[in-house]
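Moderator note: this is an archived Q&A kept for reference. The question asked for a predicted structure of one protein chain; the sequence and the answer are reproduced below.
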Amino acid sequence: MMDALHVGRLRGVIEILEKLDPSARLEALKKLITNNGGTWDLPSQKIGADGNPIYMPALMSLNLFGVYAMAEVLEELPRNWMKAAQNILDANKAGETPEDARV
């Protein structure tokens, strides 16, 4: 069972991301990770002479508040994180007892 603070953080991030244009979600996640801890494995922002990022992982990933998501295509990463976070919240809610729901 997740504690109320963790549940609140996940719900809050999902709400923030849902309000944003999908093209702004990755940048928001990066800021949240920078400010709250977490990790990411994203393409380098440095561009090589060939026009490609200097570092390009096979799978892009990020981890925020214990929720890990990955994608082969960078634009899918925020959506995948949001789905994973929502799945965790749904599973947590399903495991609640009536006493837990009052917290």
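Archived answer notes: Residues 77-94 form the longest helix (18 residues).
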